[in-house]
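Hey, weird one. I pasted the Laminin subunit alpha-1 sequence into the form twice and got a warning about non-standard characters only the second time. First submission, copied straight from the form history:
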Amino acid sequence: MDADGEMSLNTARDLIDEAEASTKQTQEVVDRMVFTSKKQDQQFEKWNDTIASKLEELRNKITRAHHNANRIRLSMTSIGDSGGTCVRTYKPANLEPSTMTTIVLTYAISSQLRDALLFYLPSSSTDDFVAIEMVNRKMRFVWNVGGGLGEVTHPLHIQTAGDLNKDQHWYRVEAERVSNIGNLWVRPVVVPEGSSLRDSPPATNASLAGVGRFDVGPGDRVWVGGADRRHPHLLSTQSGLVGCLHHLHLNGRPIGLWDFSTQNPHSCTACVEGAQEVVDESSYSFAGDGYSVVTHDSSGTYNKYLFSVSLKFKTFDSNALLFIGSGNSTGKYVSLTLKNGRVIFRIGYGGDSSLEMSTTEKYNNGKWTRIEASRYFDRKKKLEKGVLKVGNEVRDGAPTIPPNQDSIPDMSVARYYVGGIPPGEKNLPPVPGPFLGCMSEIQIDQGAYSLLKGKYWGMQASCSSKPIGVAGFYGNGFIELPSHSLKKKDNFGFVFSTSQRDALLMLSTFEGLNGQLDDKEEMTNLIEQEDRLSYYSVSLRRGQIDVRLNAGRGEVRLASVSSEYGDSRYHSINVAKIGKRLELRVDDVLDAVTNLPEGSTTFKANGESGGLFFGGLPTGFNTTGRTFSNVPFVGTIKDVIFNDRIHGFDEPLRFEEVTIGRLGPTTSQPRTNEPSNSIATGCRKITSYTVDPRAVSFGDVPFSHVQVNFRKRAVLQKNFTLELDFRTFYQNGLIFMIPGVRGKQPHYLMAALRNGRVQIVLKGRRKIETTAQAVFNDGMWHKLVLEKEDRKMTLRIDSIDPEKTKTPKKMNVGNVMYIGGLPETGVLLPQNLIHKLEGFKGCIRALRVNDREEPLVVEQTNPYPKVGQCFPQVERGSYFPGDAYAIYKNKFNVGSLLELELEFRTSEMNGVLLSVSEPQGYPALSLELNNGKVIMSGDMGDRRPFRVVQELDSEFTVCDNRWHRIQAHYINDELTLRVDDHDQSYWLSDNGHLTVATTKSPLYIGGIPEHASIGTLETRENFKGCIRNVIISGERRDWTAMASLHNVLHTSCPLPSS
């Protein structure tokens, strides 16, 4: 390390330490002032303004110091020759859940040691991690993102460096993870021209398919050289950093090795500056939050009467700073900016005098554009002129108020800011934010400048060829990309964040824009009509993820289990096609499975011609029947993957009002039905839920049905019109059945949901089937109309295209109709058919036959005790009215390992969520709400009960009638409890505790019966509210698969009336 490097290193660390100490002292002053008496309020306001400005100044000082430390290019190693002692942690600024990870580092080793842990990023909330380590002199990339261990080892042997100053002893290591697939490249940093090493393929491997979301967040830390808790899957045995680490990049952003968060004291030191790849230093990549500051080159001749700037740029930014030069005088400057995509050239002469010129065209199209801007003062005519050349446009002009000679900006001692401004800079005019994109061939005042020679941050030499993986949407735009067909074994996915509950996320389609296909006759002739019917879309509907797909033979639908995805958090979506099977995974959890209709094979797409839209659609686009929502998206979409390959946003066919390369807004318009962020002062009470007087609920008990007897036997045998409304979240269920007349037992007319689609089956001498080409298990009301006229039957649902089929003129069906299911006995139908049919789980109303209403609800007495009432508005979940409980399993053993997860919504402060206990009260384990706290308790059988308590922001948080998520893990002697995003609560046993709980009793959910032991519960009060997404030991079990249900309304969860 040379003297300059050591000085800059020490200066940067001193600045950080000094600034952080000053901030702490100043904050302590503020804290003391907050508690002064009210009599000092006026004085406090003055102090507060002063302190606030000082705090802001100190924060800027800290940020600049971090930037300085980040620029230090010295390599890092451990002190001493005996082995590794250096362990450092880093806190990258932009960590967030993602389905893609890239790590790049350069490394060399001069000792004979064979192992080294070079990079380790663990999640603080899950078992996820990624790491790069050297094991027996070979680089190993290892990860776990929820689907078990993934690892790949590169075959290249890492040689010992005899001299670290020689470039050939340094290695470049690049690891890339795309969902569950890992790639690892290892090669020397400096590769001879034409060497096969430069383009050698990566070593590749994969973990479990379909699981690829890496759950990290802003609080997580990168470890270099070691870890506080080394993961058992890491094989490197040497502790501390072994060898020399030079560059380290995570997801395209550098991690400054000397801008660390923590380190082992007196353990790390600098080694030589590592080898550098040969890159194009005439072009520069700006990350969107950076800047470069260079000063005027005083070695050349300076002419104050002439000043020029020229550069090339490419960007998708609408508004950004390209360049500003400013001398010592306030208000005198020269700037180039982007405003709404147009280039603005502005000169400030001090006071009110200025010159501004703008292009007509927009240039934020991601293509290279050249700018030449100059100003010239004619001393003879006393006239100032400006010229702006951009592309083919030329603009010139003069200031409205002609400046005199002394008003001309003096750039002889100027500072030039390119791409952005450092924090805390003063005496500069208001300018747009930092630039995101590439610049090259920068000339200022006819001299070439290297942006790496001055102070810089968020900028690198050469332009990246990596795809841009993120885009921000503001509710008034869209982006169109090349589209992708989905063949036999294909998949697609992306990550999104929004606070909307209804929005269009993605649509792939051939059609939609009025008149679009008419202008492309050649394409229209080549594409068959069936292909043009292909589409697939992803929408948010009432917070639920809905996927619609059609391969030309009818639509299928996949829907998420949860409906809380408009929560401003990042969520991953993955849709996989395996033959005819379709799977939807949300946040790596398999939420839905369905099959394509007969004859469907491939979802066709328009390819390079476009048709893949994200975030919205162009004006005039017709999407009838293709999407659940047309509401433009507000938020962020990133990590778009098709068939395990990254697809960026940087080659759009067209886009409007989208910030390509940047995150979108974190919140959209506030929802009126959501509580504010203020701490709750009471439970959000729901007095009572109203019911729909005409609707009947089916499926909460076995053999749930309504029987309708028609007065005329032949009412449904010839011509008729039958109408009803239905609503369900379940894919399968009998809507109605009309058995044949006596003697015609095999005959029947049936309507049922199969895989979410309505199917009509008429069984007579032959079997006739027709199926609606859409899916309807979305929890919304749908109108079914079945008409028979002569030999034609028509099925209509809502406003979609009707399905028509030929039928016999007369059908041998009787005058008894079963709605929603079948009775236990007495139905004249084949037994094999009865065993196959599932009862309907949802609500049915408004049954009309030949315009005559047939009541499903009888007011005097209820002859159908197996049906219930329907709530007007519902969502997914099961309702526990306060006297209900479910038995998950009659003989449940806790053992030494139990993982459970559930979501609840309630207006009460107390209630049993889960309990299992032997009759004598132990062993036992329980989860409950008690006075606003979430409590998990247990007794392993030794009569030494324990408990973990999670206290929330307020005792009324649990009863705010919003969904809350509980995760609990019991593993041997450790218990963890987490509610929502709060910090985990822990319990660790002492040495005397047992670690295995042997139970053979029922596991109750939502309450316990009177005869059951209370176990470790502190209350017997049954839960009142909604529960959903119950996962125990990794198994998500539907309520219909529980051992038994007692008064649980499991088909839906009521929403409060608005």
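That's the output from the first submission. The warning seems to come from a hidden character in my clipboard, not from the data itself. The two ends are 68 Å apart (CA to CA).
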